[in-house]
Inverse folding.
């Protein structure tokens, strides 16, 4: 199934990763929030030896309704959830920055 196709609601989501050196929007766009979040989780699991043991939580932005969600992760060695630089935003929202701007908001 192609997640980049439009839906009747017209809402699409962009998964991205950002750290102090780079911003990486992930393709494709997603019609389903949970599939976009899953893409971030799979991306992190793929680069970590303990990937299958990671526990994820998604923190919605403060706007209502939320237009962004930040991924937090707990590893086998950490007792608390921490941000790892992954997020999902509503395409076209104020937080949908794809030009590499360092503004995390």
């Amino acid at each position: 199934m192609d997640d980049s196709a439009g839906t009747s609601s017209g809402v699409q989501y962009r998964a991205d990763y950002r750290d102090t050196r780079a911003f990486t929007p992930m393709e494709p766009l997603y019609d389903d929030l949970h599939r976009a979040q899953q893409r971030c989780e799979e991306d992190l699991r793929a680069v970590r030896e303990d990937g299958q043991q990671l526990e994820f939580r998604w923190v919605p932005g403060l706007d209502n309704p939320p237009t962004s969600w930040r991924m937090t992760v707990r590893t086998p060695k950490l007792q608390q959830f921490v941000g790892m630089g992954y997020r999902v935003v509503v395409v076209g929202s104020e937080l949908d920055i794809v030009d590499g701007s360092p503004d995390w908001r």
Q: What stands out?
A: The helical segments are 33-47. Confidence is low (pLDDT under 50) at residues 1-8.
